[in-house]
Specification:
One of its GO terms (molecular function) is hydrolase activity, acting on glycosyl bonds. By secondary structure, the chain is α/β, with parallel strands linked by helices. The chain is built from 11 helices and 8 strands.
């Protein structure tokens, strides 16, 4: 996802004078105890290589267990043990029971590879409208040309969205294969800013009413969205964040977020041409005991080997991939990166 350089100045969230109604969060002790019970979680933001967006992944006609199994096998082979996976309410709306069955199938496949799952419910990034059925083909050389916001420009709370959230969370609220619920990816992106506030507050309320056994969070990603950041940091059981900066700036962000006294999970990093690489960031996150999810696993329809703002109309493979680790046939972009990752995950 396209992100600004992330570096927080300690926000007013630490003040007792916060104006927003507080959701009942886990205590810091409970959050720390939960975190200690898990090995270091490291993985990718995942979508199978043959899906351009969340609907193509989750709709019945295009849900492809063979490709999911193949791609997660690549991840397991280098010691990755967790994936961050985006849902979309439109796939649920078409067929709630079938959608949840497909979620369960995905979890079964992931679990068979020793991989936990972090599900994302809403998202403010990229295309603001969607259509059911066959999804568009990728635009040549364009990063994430078909990725979907959820719910998009209609981003106010609705009865449908409430039913979706509560149905999914209630069904899987005790599922130990699910590590965490990421309630809202980058609220305020696509120039929505504080327009995303009503849905952000609503999804935390809905999650609180369901009382999932897994923690809930919404990651901070832009220092300019102060009001949203305050709410997210005060209402998340564990702190999740995005950072695509180099190791010096990333370390500053970690040091700042440590002030909140909760476990840290980096749910997006690794943009090679911006100075965020496996070589300088993954060792940092391991040493700081921060769970680590890079963007992208297998190069495919999302075209995330191309940079956010540098399309390649000829569709040639860029000399340095922006995101992703593997090609569809399992060969890596960089053998050196694979060696490093395996050394950090104990797969040597």
């Amino acid at each position: 996802m396209k992100l600004k350089l992330f570096l927080f100045v300690l926000l007013a969230a630490t003040s007792a004078n916060v104006a927003f109604a507080q959701r009942s969060t886990w205590s810091k002790k409970k959050a720390a105890r939960w975190y200690r019970h898990h090995d270091w979680q490291r993985g990718s933001n995942f979508i199978p290589g043959n899906a351009i967006n969340q609907l193509e992944m989750w709709q019945a006609a295009s849900f492809d267990t063979a490709v999911i199994n193949r791609d997660l096998g690549y991840a397991a082979s280098i010691g990755l043990n967790s994936m961050r996976v985006f849902l979309h309410h439109a796939a649920w709306e078409q067929d709630p029971e079938g959608f949840k069955q497909r979620m369960n199938t995905y979890l079964t496949i992931a679990h068979s590879h020793g991989i936990s799952t972090l599900f994302v419910l809403f998202d403010d990034c990229w295309n603001n409208s969607y259509r059911y059925g066959t999804q568009p083909v990728p635009k040549v050389g364009v990063h994430n040309s078909g990725w979907l916001q959820d719910p998009g420009f209609r981003h106010e709370p609705t009865d449908t969205l409430e039913r979706y959230v509560k149905d999914v969370l209630t069904t899987f609220r005790k599922d130990k294969r699910i590590l965490l619920w990421d309630l809202y990816n980058e609220p305020g992106n696509s120039d929505y800013k504080d327009k995303s506030f009503p849905l952000l507050k609503a999804v935390f309320t809905w999650a609180h009413e369901v009382k999932t056994k897994q923690p809930v969070s919404a990651g901070v990603w832009s220092e300019q969205l102060t009001a949203l950041n305050v709410f997210q940091l005060n209402n998340s059981d564990v702190i999740t964040y995005h950072n695509y900066a180099d190791e010096k700036e990333h370390k500053k962000a970690i040091d700042t977020l440590r002030n909140y006294g909760r476990p840290l999970i980096c749910t997006e990093y690794m943009a090679r041409t911006r100075g965020s690489r496996f070589a300088n960031i993954m060792p940092l996150l391991k040493s700081e005991h921060v769970a680590a999810y890079n963007w992208g696993l297998v190069s495919g329809k999302t075209n995330t080997i191309y940079a956010w703002d540098s399309p390649m109309p000829d569709g040639k493979e860029p000399p340095v991939w922006f995101h992703d680790i593997f090609r569809a046939d399992g060969t890596p972009f960089s053998a050196e990166e694979i060696t490093l990752i395996k050394s950090l995950t104990g797969k040597e």
